[in-house]
């Protein structure tokens, strides 16, 4: 169990953190605030630019100025390790899962429908 806990901690440390916009001092309604709000939802810079109808360069400028590293790296190492370690899945079974196969909020508990 200690090795599994260490694996989860290492995976968490390697994941790119989602920014906490509450920690940033931003003027409500400003472009920087909108960019930070959308970045906190996990959107990539191109997706943020599309939603705000501004250039990707403008989004990148605000992210850099705010010190946010969004869309760089991989998010999900811990989730993958948790599924493999706690759920007992084989790697091939995890790779074969589709989003529609996962039920997290079912009344009888989370499960995989395959």
Overall description:
The protein is mainly alpha-helical. The chain folds into two domains: 1-16 and 73-114, no CATH class; 17-66, no CATH class. The protein is built from six helices and two strands, in the order H-H-H-H-H-H-E-E. It has helices at 2-14, 31-40, 45-52, 56-66, 77-87, 91-96; strands at residues 102-103, 111-112. Strands 1-2 form a two-stranded antiparallel ribbon. It is elongated and about 45 Å long. The two termini are 28 Å apart. The model has no long low-confidence stretch (mean pLDDT 80).
What topology does this entry show?
Elements: H1 2-14, H2 31-40, H3 45-52, H4 56-66, H5 77-87, H6 91-96, E1 102-103, E2 111-112
Antiparallel strand pairs: 1-2
Structural class: mainly alpha
**How many beta-strand elements?**
2
Radius of gyration: 18 Å
Order of helices and strands: HHHHHHEE
Number of helices: 6
State the distance separating the first and last CA atoms: 28 Å
What's the overall geometry?
A: elongated
Low-confidence stretches: none
- Strand fraction equals under 5%
Helix content: 40-55%
The biggest beta sheet, please?
2 strands, antiparallel
- Provide the spatial order of strands within the biggest beta sheet: 1-2
The average pLDDT value, as a whole number, equals 80
Domain unit count: 2
Give a brief rundown of this model:
The protein has 114 residues and is mainly alpha-helical. It has helices at residues 2-14, 31-40, 45-52, 56-66, 77-87, 91-96; strands at residues 102-103, 111-112.
């Amino acid at each position: 169990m200690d090795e599994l806990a260490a694996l989860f901690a290492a995976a968490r440390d390697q994941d790119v953190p989602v920014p906490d916009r509450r920690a940033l001092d931003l003027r409500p309604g400003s472009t920087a605030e909108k960019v930070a709000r959308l970045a906190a939802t996990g959107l990539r810079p191109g997706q943020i630019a599309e939603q705000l109808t501004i250039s990707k360069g403008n989004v990148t400028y605000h992210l850099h100025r705010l010190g946010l590293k969004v869309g760089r790296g991989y998010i999900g190492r811990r989730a993958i390790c948790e599924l493999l370690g706690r759920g007992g899945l084989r790697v091939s079974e995890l790779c074969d899962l589709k989003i529609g196969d996962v039920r997290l909020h079912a009344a009888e508990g989370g499960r995989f429908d395959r």
